[in-house]
Amino acid sequence: MNNSKRTVVVTGFGPFGEHTVNASWVAVQELKKLGLGTEVDLHVYEVPVEYQTVQSLVPSLWKQYHPLLVVHVGVSGMATTVTLEKCGRNHGYKGLDNSSFCPDSQCCIVGGPDCIDSVIDMESVCKRVTASGLGVAVSVSKDAGRYLCDFTYYTSLYLSHGRSAFVHVPPIGKPYSGEDLGRALQAIVQEMLELLDQAEEKIHCQHFH
């Protein structure tokens, strides 16, 4: 590995509907306090719950930072665990956003594949974080819900050829505090970076043999 710091961008969402305080942004701010160690340059962003903003903001984050990894965090009123999403989906966006808009095409990228998987093995991240005894339950899902979360994830996966991740958190206090969620995010992102490193080393080794 070269000595330059690795850049990671983590986003949370702003308020919407009954989520006047969005747990995802609270969790991301807690993660920012904790940091990801001296080797990682961490940037955090609050994303408005608007399709059109996502369409311009997500590409600009990739362009501006050239991050190794972008992790998007969203809240799910139905979640009781911290949930790692394996894939993003292109079609089925009918829910109106904060500006009462939804894409005419009801999809993220016209002509894009139906579904894009993250290059990160979420089952493996889940197992490792669970084994670390963090005291926060983690699970894996294949359906990010066809709203702004899924829309953002797909857009990011498309742009990064799969080098993105999405984490759903439950609302604050149901059952976890913001600090708990921040600690969980820290552990999750560190495991993701570890897995990406191992994948790079594998490619490297194959290259030299």
Automatic annotation (TrEMBL):
InterPro entries: Peptidase_C15, Peptidase_C15-like, Peptidase_C15-like_sf, PGPEP1_Cys_AS, PGPEP1_Glu_AS. This is Pyroglutamyl-peptidase I. Keywords: Cytoplasm, Hydrolase, Protease, Thiol protease. It comes from the Eukaryota. Pfam families: Peptidase_C15. GO terms for cellular component: cytosol. The active site is at 85, 149. CDD domains: Peptidase_C15. GO terms for molecular function: pyroglutamyl-peptidase activity. Belongs to the peptidase C15 family. Monomer. Removes 5-oxoproline from various penultimate amino acid residues except L-proline.
